[in-house]
Design brief:
The complex is a heterodimer of chains A (405) and B (336). By secondary structure, chain A is mostly beta strands. Chain A has two domains: 91 residues; 263 residues. Chain A contains three helices and 34 strands. In chain A, strand 1, helix 2 and strand 2 form a beta-alpha-beta unit. Chain A is elongated and about 65 Å long. Chain B has 336 residues and is of the alpha+beta class. Chain B has two domains: 204 residues, no CATH class; 118 residues, no CATH class. Helix content of chain B is 23%, strand content 19%. Chain B contains nine helices and ten strands. In chain B, the strands form three sheets. Chain B has a six-stranded antiparallel beta sheet with strand order 1-2-3-4-5-6, with helices on one face. Chain B is globular and about 65 Å long. Chain B starts with a helix and ends with a helix. The chains are: A mainly beta (405), B alpha+beta (336).
Amino acid sequence: MKKLLLLSAVLFAAPPALARTIVVDAKADAREAIQTALIEAQPGDVVELPVGTFALDEGLSLDVDGVTVKGAGPDRTILSFKGQTGAGEGLLVTSDRVLLTGFAVEDSKGDGIKSKGADKITFHDLRVEWTGGPKPTNGAYGVYPVSSSNILVDKVTVRGASDAGIYVGQSSNIIVRNSLAEYNVAGIEIENSTNADVHDNVTTHNTGAILIFDLPDLPVMGGHSTRIFRNKIVANDTPNFAPKGNIVASVPMGTGVMVMANRSVHVFDNDFADNATAHVMVVAYPQAINDASYNPLPREVFVGANRFGKGGWDPGFPGGKELAAAAGGALPPVVWDGAESWTIKGEVKGEPVKLGFAGGKLMSFGMPQAPTDPTKAKPALIDVPTTPVSFPPEVRLPADQPGVS
Amino acid sequence: MRSALLALASLTLVAAQPAPVALDALLAETPAPTLAAYRLFTDAKATQPNSRVTPYTLNTPLFSDYALKHRYVFVPPGKTIGYRASGVLDFPVGTALVKTFAYPADLRVKGSPERFLETRLLIRKADGWAAYPYVWNADGSAAVLKKAGARLDAGWIHSDGTPRNVRWSVPNVNQCKGCHASGEAITPIGPKAWNLGATQLASWTRLGLMAAATGVPKVPAWDDASAPVAIRARAYIDVNCAHCHTAKGPASNSGLYLEWDQPDRVAQGLGKRPVAAGRASAGLDFAIAPGHPDASILVHRMESTEPGIMMPELGRTLMHAEGVALVRAYVAGLTP
């Protein structure tokens, strides 16, 4: 009996959390109503955004674990930040196990939806858009998880980002799938991150479709292990509108996949067509470096069987026309700058980059040392192994990742 | 009779003695709906600090659209602040840091009547710090909790004699964390030994708030024209930027770390390329281009008042002309 009493006492002390649905009043002041709901939500709660277009003059933020923010659909629940006067992004999430689904963020002054330091974050059935089309004054990133882990981006549409539509930075265990990125500078970018699967996306009318980068002078470097498969990477034909100074400003129009300074990247089973610069470019970091812990070379990049349509007929980088002419009118599907060494503090360092291509031959621009200058290229078709030296693992998200049934 | 008189006198004394700070309210799980409930002040207008509520100042304050700030620290009876030469001092559970933002009618006139906008509380609870904004009503007679923040229209006569106006933004409790986050936890920003200064800390010791402070770093106030520009500018940048731009701060991913004593030149921004600046880079290549303030993204973002470009992201809508001038002079004096 005593035991039973104790047990019931414990039950009373910690009742199971009852998930509530907090419905935001569509008629109230939007900023106050939505932000209050995001602050007062408890773990397990659903914050329901009603149908309508809501004008926000200030960024929103969520810092409660285990919350779902759910709208009526990305074309029915619209958060418009056209009149935004404060904060750096539309919506910021800094908590864990959050599901964002069924709404749109439009015209935020900075980034669209950002997560920082979030674990198990799911972006599902969302739209982030700058409605005035591609402009350098648009925000940098559309969907922007950074310093986060276990990230799912699923059924998301991003248009008009002046840097990258879907950008994952300094994060690990990432899936980006079933999404549409168009009219951005970069469609999808995975940067300084590890273990990513990018699949079944459509990337079109960007400047560059899918970028896998690693950059120096950052707290998380040494990005590796990304698989890019079953994507449509076609007609990336928007002139680069990134503000100068940003690394993506150097991406030439008509780039399909670009791998820069990243390790163990596999590209297979994709449809490539109508990318004027090149379908797949593998390059070293293009600037001088002074970070001794940074490796500017791409390594262990393998391009498997893909379907390659027209491409490479008008490479948009200095010296590109000459290279295309040298290749008989168009660059082949896979090109590499040729760098296998770099200088750091006056010392030359280097290592074999171990590239592979199921097609057997790729074009090297013959520039052995990073940073390279493509106007001094000595192009040649070279033989490379037709099998990879490394296998990035399939990304598996945890069983309790929100929004995964 | 005599004893009766004495008793009466002591009763009167008791009645005259205001009730102490409401420690239970400070430590309660949910914040009080009104500022008055904490009894941090003995008057409704929050100008008379209660016993153990000590005013303090910072040598170099965060710029907040030229608003005046009244700061107080409360430490519970029987407790003391632990001294630390670097980082925020070690405040005991029950500490309250109180900051009231106000505009005087005329910034040129000392003692000009002030309008209080909001009072922010940082309370050291048993499981860490919590931040709450209390917004003052129009006649300054009461301040109430506004978790979702607020917008207030305010105006004053500026130091140059011109009228100025701002749309004052009271942060919501998440935005409080936007500046006060360190990793997962909330932390104060201002009360560090170097920014409080040895003289003020010595007075805290005399008041019994803290054991003796030794080895307090000597960092001049940002506007002390007798001190070298570089150290003043680094102190100014620290206070205005380093709450986010530090290895555990909200801008950790930038790799731009702006503490006044940050030893790494690239982390300080010298020759550092932007990462996620987007259009805020304004076509410039480096956070700080030594010798060239006009080519420095950091200066550009301090001069902007446009969301998405301006830095800090929160807490100002105006450019701080005097702060920008200091940072420009610092960058101009740097050699590559």
